[in-house]
Amino acid sequence: MPLRVAKAGVRLDLVLYLGFAVFAGVTAAGSEFYGYRIWGNCALVAYLVAAALAGRVALRGRGSRWLPVWLSTLVGTIAPLLYLSFRRDPGYTWGPWPWSFPSQPEVWVVERAARAWLADGTPYLDLNTLGRAPHADDYTPYGPSMSVFGLPRALFGDHPLTDARVAFLVVTAGALLLAWHLLGRPTVPVPAALLVVASPLTALTLTVAGDDVAVAALVVLAAALAYRDTRWSPWWTGALCAVLVTMKLTALPAAAVLAVGLLAHRGLRAAAAFLVALLAVGTAVVLPVLLVDAGAFVEHVVKFPVGLGRASSPASSPLPGHLLAGLGAAGHAAALVLLGLAACAVAAWVALRPPRTAADALARTAIGLGAAIALAPATRWGYLVYPVVLLGSALAFAAAERVRVGTGESAPGSRSGVDSRTGDPPPR
Questions:
Q1: What's the number of CA atoms in the CB half-sphere (13 Å) around residue 179?
Q2: What is the pLDDT of residue 310?
Q3: pLDDT tens digits for range 117-170
């Protein structure tokens, strides 16, 4: 029998689906990118049907709020992703015509990096061997761990299912499901699910690229691990954060927030274990690449993203920092000052009021990354998927924590007789 639902909640769902549909329609009609337009057409249908289903539930006062979520995810994310993966020609040559791109260049760059890693021991091209001036697509602005997502195509050849986006989707789903399991498989609020899996930023990014959503999902998993009261959770959290940071430096603020949270929640020993694992795994990933060609690593991973590379980054969405930087040297300096002030403010907030729960850690990471994305001189709209996914996850974590407190349950993973600050059993 259909369950009765709160009308206020389902009305919010309806408003969100209609807003999502507007975004999808504008993208379908106005984007210069082929992949974006394919996504926009699929997502427009998905969100309108989801809105109709939500409206039906609102009128009847009963029904499933989850059916529109899963339908919009299937039709608005998985269907266009698979279509574009099958549409991709193995002999496709990248050119200056964005309206023909079956994926964003990030996909091809990650796959190329995996092939180079296997062949040369480093995922980074030596730009001096190109015989021409380098351009943005010659760069691999990711850490070595990101190349793992290109290994299916490097090892098994060109096939729709070896597309890096499929690997990003699988890891994203796996990380979110594992985080949910670590929380004790709580009921997830529908608005949280809408932000994490059904929002246009998540769906579009997974369809045309996927890397940023995978990183965000792994940050969620790291937060779930960090606040488990078990002996090995700080070690696993540190190891996972090392993988994240060596995928994309965007994850560095998340690692810092979780380190402070572990110190506040579990004490010095847990924080030390986190740092040891972080440094050990990070060194194991990066050192072999540095030994092969340290200069290429610095050029691709450090210089290019901050605008000091031999080619300029194409990241130029009209967010406040970029608009300020466009006013000239003074505007660029002002953007950097505002970015620095925002970073100091968030750092002080985290240090003076450490995150005591995983939800707190995710919310503060989301706010910090959101401020950085808005104020950075070179940025993209798509990066906003980080705060959206992390805020949605924070809502889900907070709901689980409220239920646990209300029922008097211990945190998932806690063990009777174990000191939650050190992970040690009591003395005998």
A1: 30
A2: 83
A3: 999 999 999 888 888 888 888 899 999 999 999 999 999 998 889 999 999 999
Confirm if 88 and 27 have CB atoms less than 8 A apart. Answer: no
The answer to whether 109 and 137 are in contact (CB under 8 A) is yes
Name the burial class of residue 231, with classes exposed (0-12), middle (13-18) and buried (19+) by CB atoms within 10 angstroms of its CB: middle
Instruction: Determine the Cα–Cα distance for residues 370 and 394; give it in Å rounded to an integer.
Output: 14
Dump pLDDT digits (tens) for 17-37.
Answer: 999 999 999 999 999 888 999
Type of residue numbered 145: S
Angle (CA) 191-23-315 rounded to 5° is 105
Helix/strand/coil for 230: coil
Parse the chain into domains and list their residue ranges: 1-89, 103-407
- Which residues, other chains included, contact 265 with Cβ-Cβ below 8 Å and sequence gap of 6+? 226, 227, 354, 356, 420, 421
Burial label, 268 (beta-carbon count in 10 A; 0-12, 13-18, 19+): exposed
DSSP string, 119-168: HHS-SS--GGGSSS---GGG---S-GGGGGGGHHHHHH-S-GGGSHHHHH
Q: Given pLDDT bands bounded at 50, 70 and 90, which one contains residue 421?
A: very low
d(CA 271, CA 259) in angstroms, rounded, equals: 6
The pLDDT value given to residue 304: 85
Q: Which two tokens stand for residue 306?
A: 């901050």
Q: What is the DSSP string of 165-195?
A: HHHHHHHHHHHHHHHHHHTTSPPPPHHHHII
How far is it, in rounded angstroms, from Cα 107 to Cα 113? 10
Tokens encoding 192: 């949280």
Q: Position of tokens 């696993």?
A: 236
Query: 118: burial class by Cβ within 10 Å (0-12, 13-18, 19+)?
Result: middle
Average pLDDT over residues 239-256: 96
pTM of the model: 0.90
Closest CA to 251 of 356, 97, 146: 146
